[in-house]
Amino acid sequence: MRTERNVFIINLAISDLLLCLFTMPFTLFQIVLRYWPLGLFISSL
């Protein structure tokens, strides 16, 4: 199971999961509150 293809697919799955975990809460804030409550510091990241 440790072929290059499987490692690549697992790497993509982990990166997709991390991207969702870090971006979804901020997007949810913006959608629910209809403005960006977290200030300029986070928007510049």
Strand runs, count: 0
Query: What fraction, in percent, of the residue positions are helical?
Result: over 70%
Count of discrete alpha- or pi-helical segments spanning 4 or more residues: 2
Using only C-alpha atoms, the radius of gyration works out to: 16 Å
Strand content: under 5%
Query: Mean pLDDT, as a whole number?
Result: 87
Low-confidence stretches: none
Largest sheet: none
Number of domains: 1
Principal-axis shape equals elongated
**Structural class, from secondary structure content?**
mainly alpha
Q: Termini, distance in Å?
A: 37 Å
Q: How do the helices and strands follow one another from N- to C-terminus?
A: HH
Walk me through the structure.
This protein has 45 residues and is mainly α. It has one domain. The chain contains two helices and no strands. The longest helix is centred in the middle third of the chain and has 30 residues, at 4-33. The radius of gyration is 16 Å and the shape is elongated. The N and C termini lie far apart (37 Å). The model has no long low-confidence stretch (mean pLDDT 87). Pfam families: 7tm_1 (PF00001). Belongs to the G-protein coupled receptor 1 family. Its main location: membrane. This is Neuropeptide F receptor-like protein.
